[in-house]
Amino acid sequence: MIGFLILSVFIGIVIIAFASVTQKKLSDAIILFMGVGLGSVVLFFIFKAPDVALTEAVIGSGISSLIFLMALKHLKEKA
Amino acid sequence: MSSTLFIALPLLFGFISPLFSKFGKNTTAIVSTTMQLFLFLLSLSLLVDAKPYVEVISINPPLGISFVLTKVSLFFVTLFTFLMLMFSLYYMSYRKTIPYKNETKFFILINMLLASAVGLVLSSDIFNIYVFFEIAGISAYILSAYKKTPSALEAGIKYLLTGAIASVFLVFAIALIYLNIGSLNLAVISLSFEELPHNVKILISILLLVGFGFKIEIFPLNFWVSDVYEGSSAHVNTLFSAIVVKAYLFVFFHILYLFLPSGEFSIFLIYLGAISMLVAEIVALKQTNLKRLFAYSSLGQIGLIFTAFAMQNQDGVQGALYIIFAHSIAKTIIFLSLTTIGKKYNTYDIEVLKKLNSNFLKVVMLIAMLSLLGIPLFAGFVGKFLTLKTLAVNGTFLAMGIILLASLLEAVYYFKLVGFMFVKNEVKEVLEINKTQKVIFASLAIILIIVGTFPFVVSNFLLDSANVLLDNHSFITMLMH
Amino acid sequence: MSLKRDLPTSTMSGFALSASLVLTILNILLHNIPNNIQTVGDELLKLNQTEGVANAVTTVVVYFRGFDTLGEIAVLFIASLGIGLMLDANKRCDIKAKSNFMLQTASKLLFPIIMLFGIYVMVYGHLSPGGGFQGGVIVASGVLLLLISFNEFELSHKVVSMLEMFAGASYVIIGLIGLLVLDKFLGNFLPNDVANMGMLLSGGIIPIIYIIVGVKVGSEMSVISENLIKRCEDV
Amino acid sequence: MFEFFNQSEVIKIIIIVGSMSLFLVGLFGLLTQKHIIKTFISIAIMESSVFLLFIGLSYKQTFLAPILADGQQNFSQMNDPVPQAMILTAIVIGMAVLALGVSFTIEYYKLTSKTNIDEMTSLRN
Prior knowledge:
The complex is a heterotetramer of chains A (79), B (481), C (235) and D (125).
Chain A lengths: L1 H21 L3 H21 L3 H29 L1
Chain C lengths: L10 H21 L8 H12 L4 H9 L1 H21 L14 H23 L8 H18 L7 H26 L22 H26 L5
Helix pairs in contact in C: 3-4, 3-8, 4-8, 5-6, 6-8, 7-8
Chain D lengths: L1 H4 L2 H25 L3 H22 L23 H32 L13
Helix pairs in contact in D: 2-3, 3-4
């Protein structure tokens, strides 16, 4: 079961990542990027690395995406 | 005395810097320069009685992180602290007229740069090297964007993007190393790296080459360098050219010698260096911006150093250390005098040299340029001569030819610059240079002449250093004991 | 020279280039799958039995590879300094739009809980998953919530910079004390009673350092968030 | 059918192929996307693919997480803590660099109204 779970999460995050980098709209791209982070959190948890999972959750997908979103706010102001 | 101080003290300085503003405007500058003076004297005192020494962090190697102080790392530490001290002193004289707005931050950044350069040289753990790689990178990005003009920010963004890509590849390489060997200590990796499957070995080597290649500015990964040099301020370029690149170059070849002592890719790297020198010198010919021109000149010299290191034998490494020494000092002179010139005339166009009216600066810059060219009686000559001689002994005449051709091209644009400087000009306005700056320039120029005229002052030390760098056995026994 | 002018930029050639590169790597990796070898981690786990704390990752991060963490703190410190420099503090202005009542009430309720959780993660970092980095960022996210919901909320810069300074300096000073006492930078000079492993007060300097890291990360991240939010358009 | 996926060799192949596909996506984005923020996202995706590869390949199915749970006494049969510690460090560093890059981008945009990498040409001659 665990192998199949890993496979499906991987397929999911690869698709989300592809959608994220090819997305025209920046805000969508950032939200999808958060999805990649969340998928990685699941994988890290399956790989018995709870510390890394927690770090990825709060830093990799949490704060990083927030920083991108805050940047978006500034970039749009003048557009 | 402890080698950790070279890293711990600048970090401590950075962390407690908010405290300094309470004691007046100049405190940060004074404390920073005093600390750099202390570190320089410390490295000199270690130089007097140079014994190889392993500094342990937390737990004993090969399990934990450790710093290895050998002759060759001491050479780099002394060079870096000396140049940083000279830079700080120059900056102290310069800031009287135009102080930076956020000066405390500037001092923190240059000290972090010093700490990370020293850390790169001393560390014996590959992941620790990655951390210092990032510290040096991140302080360099901020320094290059420091002015916050569009071009400075553009330079910063380009620098940061390439640096971030480089670090991805470096982490990849480190991950593969750990997965295949099970250790991060350079000595342990060195023992079993050559026994890895051939393909894995090549993959890791290429990933390391790409990861470090961006930072050591080797062709074709150096497309960003000239932009960064042009966008950043001239005095910051001193640090990039004299300290940061040299630290990366050292750590790259340190790792290469440890991992591949048999010199498997030696011939490939020799040509890579020679070609990047040639390309850089060709592009340099048509540059009209002084900062950009000297950026390409730096790239050329780095190609030469790369070739010399890549030969992986005693004479080659000794030559490389000579060139590093001469180039760092000469480029410090050049970029610091460019700062003085740029401050006065507010342009870095090549024509500004015609207006230059200061015999002192002209002579000092001439000495630096002649040394960069490798004219006899100047420090650059010994290194270039040794490198070319070793190439001839090795039988790689094609590489030797490429380097000679590149040197010829180098001579063309340097003599163009010299012509501009010594053309008869009608400018009455004299460029005033204050005393501190005069002392700094003069002492650096005198070092170049002394080392060039009497190479035996340093040749024994550099020969020993080269032997230490190539001697894997003693490095491994030191860490494994 | 533009960063990408010399590289193929059309979608197809970009895909072909990256695919060929990755396929080569993939080919090599699949033919040489790293098998489970004896690693330095196994020895560190053994050592952890006598010198570490219940969370082996924490021991490795804070103690066995403590210098990496010091460097990491330095990276965060420099990054926050750079962001502060870029998004200049003098150019602040108030956000015109007022956040709605629901958000304000909810953040008032949530803020203490987030803080408590962050501090818990920080303090229990040596016993359970988590630690200074995660806890610090959670605390900072609480501050971020306040920054978003209340326009008038401002960090006290004096307090934050004092916290930063105290945390960073004490990390280095603990390291230097270790150097003086044990001749090892960052050596564990406090008694580490391994019999008590799993208790809150165990592990010598390890939990102390992780809390310091948490304070440092929390204050740095709060400053970064504040800079990014409060920076407004130039007038 | 699911048992097939549970063999450790198969899991390793899944991890290698999956993370390399993620790496490919990141590299593809890096080469084709022009917006600076998009480039940063691509780099972040590449980074996390490397992290997944590293943690995934150092993971042993039958072993435990390297944390002492209730009732456990010794640190045997545990997954390697060193890769986890390294990745923890690398994640934080990567985030710091990206945050700095974002702040550069914001300032650059305020001054020039440009976010496209190909338009960053003021330093070219």
